[in-house]
């Protein structure tokens, strides 16, 4: 975790420091949320959706030990995988007095424990339509029988940190229930609007009167939303969580991009004449072995890349233009839209321009012939 937050993204020591000033500006236009599992001062298990007020200013969350604050502390909270990446972290609101007895202290760790797929927190915050990007292929069936992690690793971890209620939650299959419930809800969402469970952990915990009332009122008090699960095709091999082979990781990245491209491009009328697979090969090209590189030197060299602004008004105007403009000049049609998206300004976007021009040239030749 320290390598990612300090060694890569950090302002002082990071080799690819995050432009925090630009990030904060963009966060005002398109807010980021970091989801983490948490235990409040009363011992209640819940997932926490951390955002702007937790990232910046006097109200920013801080570690009790003072090592990280704000955005960085929130990111760390979402990266604490029980039994793998360190102890749960304890955060408090920056406006409060730091004290172990402070009732505002939160104990946080990775979101997968209490919200494996973070669409519930989005709906709880008011979202009515949620695009859910899934890391598992279509047709994936999660395990429902507790394994070594649920029966051994997780309970030992949480017992050792004084959180016996979370240890029991794993032993009783509560986390697996949540994941299986997510899969079923996303499948049902293909048919239309669905009811979304509230932030409370309802199963794998003691059935208190309050929790029972919440379960009984699912037909009247639970929020409803449209969910669109985005998944790679059924049968696509999963990339191992600890995979380090560059080609294997590249293949997995391409697969996810391809699925997203095939689904999202038509929604904005983006007709490039390319499949998602072809687009992925352009955006994420293979090493052709002709370029002289030195990975060790490259990864040890600090490169500060200025952030790019999200120009919302410009992007909306460009999108409207793309939807209403007629004609066959695809390059002039989509050039403004793509230039409005950070990541397409320069770089590999030049490849797209060349492809458009070649296609237009061949199209003109075919008409003449």
Could you explain how this protein is built, in words?
It is a single chain. The protein has 369 residues and is α+β, with helices and mostly antiparallel strands. The protein is built from 15 helices and eight strands. Strands 2-1-5-4-3 form a five-stranded antiparallel sheet. Strands 6-8-7 form a three-stranded mixed sheet. Strand 1 and strand 2 form a beta hairpin. The radius of gyration is 24 Å and the shape is globular. 21% of the residues are buried. The mean pLDDT is 82.
Can you tag this structure with a few keywords?
369 residues, alpha+beta, five-stranded antiparallel sheet, three-stranded mixed sheet, globular
Distance between the termini: 61 Å
Approximately how much helix is present in the residues? 40-55%
Strand order of the largest sheet: 2-1-5-4-3
Percent range for β-strand residues: 5-15%
Would you tell me the structural class of the helices and strands? alpha+beta
Number of strands: 8
Number of helices: 15
């Amino acid at each position: 975790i320290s390598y990612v937050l300090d060694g890569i993204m950090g302002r002082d020591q990071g080799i690819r420091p995050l432009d925090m000033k630009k990030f904060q500006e963009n966060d005002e236009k398109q807010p980021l949320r970091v989801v983490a599992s948490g235990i409040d001062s009363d011992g209640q298990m819940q997932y926490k959706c951390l955002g702007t007020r937790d990232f910046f200013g006097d109200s920013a969350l801080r570690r009790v030990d003072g090592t990280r604050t704000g955005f960085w502390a929130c990111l760390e909270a979402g990266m604490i995988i029980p039994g793998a990446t360190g102890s749960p972290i304890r955060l408090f609101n920056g406006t409060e007095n730091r004290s172990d007895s402070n009732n505002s202290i939160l104990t946080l760790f990775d979101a997968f424990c209490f919200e494996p797929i973070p669409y519930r927190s989005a709906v709880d915050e008011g979202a009515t339509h949620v695009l859910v990007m899934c890391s598992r292929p279509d047709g994936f069936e999660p395990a429902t029988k507790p394994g070594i992690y649920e029966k051994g690793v997780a309970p030992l971890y949480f017992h050792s940190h004084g959180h016996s209620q979370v240890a029991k939650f794993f032993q009783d299959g509560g986390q697996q229930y949540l994941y299986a419930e997510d899969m079923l809800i996303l499948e049902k969402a293909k048919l239309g609007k669905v009811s979304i469970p509230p932030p409370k952990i309802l199963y794998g915990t003691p059935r208190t009167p309050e929790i029972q009332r919440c379960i009984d009122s699912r037909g009247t008090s639970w929020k409803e939303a449209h969910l669109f699960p985005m998944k790679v095709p059924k049968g696509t091999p999963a990339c191992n969580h600890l995979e380090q082979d560059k080609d294997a990781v590249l293949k997995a990245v391409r697969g996810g991009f391809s699925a997203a491209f095939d689904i999202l491009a038509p929604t904005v009328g983006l007709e490039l004449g390319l499949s998602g697979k072809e687009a992925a090969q352009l955006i994420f090209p293979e090493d052709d072995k002709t370029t002289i590189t030195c990975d060790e030197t490259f990864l040890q060299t600090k490169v500060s890349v200025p952030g790019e602004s999200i120009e919302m008004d410009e992007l909306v105007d460009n999108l409207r233009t793309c939807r209403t403009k007629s004609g066959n000049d695809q390059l002039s049609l989509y050039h403004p839209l793509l230039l409005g998206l950070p990541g397409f300004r320069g770089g590999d976007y030049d490849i797209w321009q060349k492809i458009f021009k070649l296609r237009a040239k061949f199209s003109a030749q075919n008409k003449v012939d």
